[in-house]
Design brief:
By secondary structure, the protein is an alpha/beta fold. The chain has one domain: 3-Layer(aba) Sandwich (Carbamate kinase), CATH 3.40.1160.10. The chain contains 11 helices and 12 strands. A hairpin with a 2-residue loop joins strand 2 and strand 3. The structure holds adenosine-5'-diphosphate.
Length: 260
């Protein structure tokens, strides 16, 4: 079975400040289809802070408030996932990680054993940063970095980032009409990593740079990343189920492609 990590950002999961139930349903439906196509799927989901804000609108400028919002929102988010997965008769589970888990081999081994056990038993792990005690997601990059670590250390060949943007372009498509999609990226130049962070939503903290950093990390480990739209799941479905690369960007080292 091929293991794949799907990462979904806050922007996809929320609409007008609340969790977008229809989009969550489409995402869960995609996961069910991927499982039928023999993938083992691990989901990395943001959205806890936004979910918390729907209950208690604390000022999100303070880190402590964002941590409190994550604590309020995480169970709400999981409840919604659970109800949605129930609809498909699939069990899901919550795994909260902090970045320092990846600093110790023993911790990695334990976490991987738990993830493996969930997957062997047909359960979908839903991973999020444990924001109330570790603020990596709240400060850097909306889970892009965490999901790259999850893909590498839990041995998934591919990370799929479902974003508000449908691909990586030669320049920001929200600012330049003539931006062109890059279908395959085999190397990331240092100047691309220095581009300004440009998150597109008041809850998002990432922007394209954190996605490029995630891709760079995975390519160096001989793994791949696919960036596609989370609003319209056609391209990701086509890439993973039909194995036809229509839209989206594949980040993949050339040598790795050649050895396939
Ligand atoms: P998400 O919330 O889905 O994680 P972000 O909003 O944080 O995504 O980051 C994606 C945004 O990055 C896009 O909406 C786009 O405006 C911006 N961006 C900047 N440069 C580029 C580029 N070269 N290609 C694609 N998107 C870019």
């Amino acid at each position: 079975m091929e293991r794949v990590v799907l990462k979904v950002g806050t922007h996809i999961l929320t609409e007008n400040g609340v969790i977008a139930k229809r989009r969550m349903l489409a995402l869960v439906d995609l996961i069910v289809q991927l499982r039928e196509a023999s993938y083992e799927v691990v989901l990395v989901s943001s959205g806890a802070v936004a979910a918390g804000y729907t209950k208690l609108p604390l000022d999100r400028k303070s880190v402590a408030n964002r941590q409190a919002l994550a604590a309020i929102g995480q169970p709400l988010l999981l409840k919604m996932y659970q109800e949605t997965f129930d609809f498909f008769d699939v069990i899901c589970s919550q795994v909260l990680l902090s970045a320092d888990v990846f600093g110790f081999q023993e911790h990695i081994d334990h976490a991987k054993a738990a993830i493996d056990t969930l997957l062997i038993n047909g359960v979908v792990p839903i991973i999020n940063e444990n924001d109330t005690v570790s603020i990596e997601e709240l400060v850097f990059g909306d889970n892009d970095r965490l999901s790259a670590h999850v893909a590498h250390y839990f041995d998934a060949k591919l990370l799929v980032i479902l974003s508000d943007i449908d691909a990586y372009y030669d320049k920001d498509p929200h600012r330049y009409e003539d931006a062109k999609r890059r279908a395959v990226v085999t190397a990331i130049l240092p100047q691309e990593l220095e581009a300004e962070h440009s998150p597109n939503n008041p809850f998002a903290t990432g922007g394209i740079v954190t996605k490029l950093l995630a891709a760079d990390f995975l390519m160096k480990q001989g793994r791949e990343m696919f960036l596609a739209s989370g609003f319209d799941l056609f391209d990701v479905k086509s890439f993973l189920v039909e194995r036809v690369h229509r839209g989206g960007t594949l980040f993949c080292k050339k040598s790795y492609l050649a050895s396939e």
